[in-house]
Write a structure and sequence with these properties.
- The complex is a heterodimer of chains A (253) and B (246).
- Chain A has 253 residues and is an alpha/beta fold.
- Chain A is built from seven helices and ten strands.
- In chain A, helix 2 packs parallel to helix 4 and helix 6 crosses helix 7.
- Chain A is globular, with a radius of gyration of 18 Å.
- The two termini of chain A are 29 Å apart.
- By secondary structure, chain B is mainly α.
- Chain B has ten helices and no strands.
- The chains are: A alpha/beta (253), B mainly alpha (246).
- Chains A and B meet through loops of A and helix 7 and helix 8 of B.
- The complex binds adenosine-5'-diphosphate and magnesium ion.
- Magnesium ion binds next to helix 1 of chain A.
Chain lengths: 253, 246
């Protein structure tokens, strides 16, 4: 039905989903994504923005290669490794924080020095704890550390900062900027927070309600990550207006 | 610990009183049984017979756990396998232990292999049922995570699957140990020239109650020791991560 393949080094992410359906509990097929086409240049930071339940997580899992049950085509960047932060921390409850992070590494790198990463994410004093003992914020940070520890070529983030303390979220966003700038990893962030997307990304994809389609996309001028609060607000306002127009247009047609 | 000692002490007192009242060769008092036990231990007879039985218990238990875990996992993970093997499982569950033992001795011969296999097959369906339950309850979100981070098969088994199956494995080990040793005695009674079951059989034909009681008590004690010094510590270790901060 689809042909997934991995391109050579530093290739863009190319994803086309003609249709993605789920069987609902009463046996009828529900179309969650339709005619979606998305291209993200190597080393750039894209954001998928859309309302809750529109199909963002579904798209992200398809991009991760975790869900091959769709009509379309996927080409992932790099021959290399995928780092992913799921919407839930998804740590192994029976392994310590440090083991959880190191288990994601290939066997020959299981003992590499991660002190810097642990320091950046403020995990240093929690490494020996079990996930059940962590606050959600700490568990999220451990999940982010796991995705970064493997030095991914391709990074997928599913609403990683939702339901965190705003202060913690701000810090983690800054850390994300620092980490992605240092490594130039191709990143796709899923969020329903427009300001967050505007602050972090250089390419925005706005999704419609279910079935998800791209309403319109926008490239933001660099530098990303360092945009001032005022600039973020200004761009967000402009985007909001354009989204409203796009929704109106798609409603008419 | 104390209430347990008290309850056991009471049991011994009741036994002593009953023996004193009965004054019969068929219910020897605790002291007589104790003396008989000591004599059996000194002669080396009891340790030898217990070792034979224990070897069979360990052998059948290991086979049942290994095969049962593999089959249970396969059935819990694959609907097709489950549909195919479920009726076999129902047959096995409802097969009387004695029938399995007789078949094994007739088809394989009156030997050690037959004895150990017969016991293992009796225990097997219980392991399959419990592990299948565990395999069905494996967390799909964690599976997806392991797939995304390209866990090798070994890593998945060791860090994802076994920790989740551990409570189910522990549950079936506990019930397993007691089922297995009871059936091992029957197998020995019917077709082995040694082991606790064999001794009990010959003591039965001589109405040697002191001997029967001393072997039974020693074997129960041995199983209790294994349970509290092996099974329980392993279980605690597997559940270490469940501790929560105060
Ligand atoms: N495994 C599934 N089976 C059936 N329906 C699903 C499944 N996963 C998601 N859905 C449905 O697809 C829609 C999109 O879900 P999701 O991609 O999680 O949205 P989002 O991440 O944008 O909130 C929702 O309506 C959800 O109920
Ligand atoms: Mg989602």
């Amino acid at each position: 039905m689809n042909d997934a393949q991995t391109a050579g080094d530093a290739a863009p992410l190319e994803l086309r989903i003609d249709a993605k359906r789920f069987l609902s509990s009463d046996g009828t097929a529900v179309e969650v994504v339709r005619n979606l086409e998305l291209r993200l240049e190597a080393g750039s930071f894209g954001a998928l923005i859309g309302p809750s339940g529109c199909g963002k997580t579904t798209i992200l899992k398809i991009a991760a290669g975790l869900d091959a049950d769709f009509q379309g085509r996927l080409r992932t960047p790099g021959a290399g490794r995928l780092g992913i932060v799921f919407q839930e921390p998804r740590l192994l409850p029976w392994r310590t924080v440090e083991d959880n992070i190191r288990l994601a590494l290939p066997a020959d790198q299981a003992n590499v020095d991660l002190a810097d990463l642990f320091g950046t994410l403020g995990l240093g004093s929690h490494l020996a704890r079990y996930p059940g003992e962590l606050s959600l914020g700490l568990a999220r940070r451990a999940a982010i550390a796991r995705a970064f520890a493997i030095r991914p070529d391709f990074l997928l983030l599913d609403e990683p900062f939702v339901s965190l303390d705003e202060a913690v979220a701000i810090r983690l966003r800054n850390e994300l900027v620092a980490l992605t700038t240092a490594t130039r990893v191709t990143t796709l962030l899923v969020t329903h927070d427009l300001a967050e997307a505007v602050q972090l990304a250089d390419r925005l994809f706005f999704l419609s309600d279910r079935p998800a389609q791209i309403l319109f996309e926008k490239t933001l001028p660099p530098p990303r990550g360092t945009r001032s609060k005022d600039l973020v607000t200004e761009i967000s306002e402009e985007m909001r207006a354009q989204v409203a127009q796009a929704v109106a247009r798609s409603g008419q047609s | 610990m104390l209430p347990r000692i008290f309850s056991l002490a009471t049991l011994i007192v009741v036994w002593a009183v009953a023996a004193a009242l009965a004054q019969s060769r068929l219910l020897p008092d605790p002291l007589t049984v104790g003396r008989a036990t000591l004599a059996e231990i000194r002669s080396g007879e009891l340790p030898f017979q217990m070792a034979c039985t224990l070897g069979r218990v360990i052998g059948s238990f290991a086979i049942a756990m290994l095969l049962g875990t593999i089959a249970g996992y396969a059935m819990g993970r694959s609907k097709a396998t489950d549909r195919f093997a479920d009726s076999w499982l129902i047959v096995l569950i409802n097969m009387p232990a004695l029938v399995v033992i007789i078949f094994a001795y007739i088809w394989i011969g009156l030997n050690e292999t037959a004895a150990i296999l017969a016991v293992a097959i009796n225990k097997l369906p219980n392991v399959v049922v419990v592990v299948r339950e565990g395999a069905r309850a494996l967390d799909p979100e964690i599976d997806e995570m392991a797939k995304a981070f390209q866990f090798t098969a070994f890593k998945r088994l060791r860090h994802v699957v076994i920790p989740q199956l551990a409570p189910y494995l522990a549950a079936s080990s506990r019930s397993g140990l007691s089922i297995v040793w009871k059936i091992v005695l029957v197998v020995e009674l019917i077709g082995r020239p040694n082991g606790v079951g064999f001794v009990l059989g010959s003591a039965f034909s001589l109405f040697d109650m002191a001997r029967i009681l001393s072997y039974a008590i020693c074997f129960i004690l041995l199983m209790l020791v294994i349970e509290s010094f092996l099974v329980q510590p392993l279980e605690r270790r597997a559940n270490r991560w469940r501790r929560r901060p105060a």
